[in-house]
Amino acid sequence: MPEAPLQDTPSGLAPAGDGWFVVNARDAVWLRLDRRGTRCAFESESSPFPQLGFAVHVLEPGQPSGLYHAESEQEAFLVLAGECKLLVEGIERILGPWDFFHCPAGTAHTMVGAGDGPCVILMTGSRSNDMAVRYPVSKLAARDGASVDVETTDPDEAYAGFVLGRWERAPSWDGAPWA
User: Fold this and answer.
1) Is the residue at 83 inside a domain?
2) Does the residue 8 lie in any domain?
3) H or E stretch including 157?
4) Which of 33, 51, 96, 141 is least surrounded by CB atoms within 10 angstroms?
5) Stated pTM of the model
């Protein structure tokens, strides 16, 4: 397998083809999401990872990582720094550094930044050609602005009120607990 070239974009380094590569998260592209924190996914729109999604997500207190949802594929989450609320199957749990959340396929969930500073979460999930997602209505998630009003399986419909975001360089690392 050849090494993938890394393209230097205005918002950071991104893979410009298939193959293996090494990039430091500080140098990779980040996406500032509308009301949903900042995410470094390491892949690019032109070179997505076909089998495994992998991201570092930074949430400020009160920011949900996404809408409450259940995917047809397994996911996993590891809190690296800070605190977040895990909303899972109608239950709320506080997670802190080194807490791991195994999320089997079909498990409804989302995470919301908590505590008094940013929360850094390592996120990964399986991918397949027939992957499906369901966005159920959740009173628990609605308290944090993380629930749809009407259940749907259409991501475009679920996120209709959100702006995708903008690509940018890494957030400030000065003084960050994970730096």
Assistant:
1) yes
2) no
3) helix 155-158
4) 51
5) 0.90
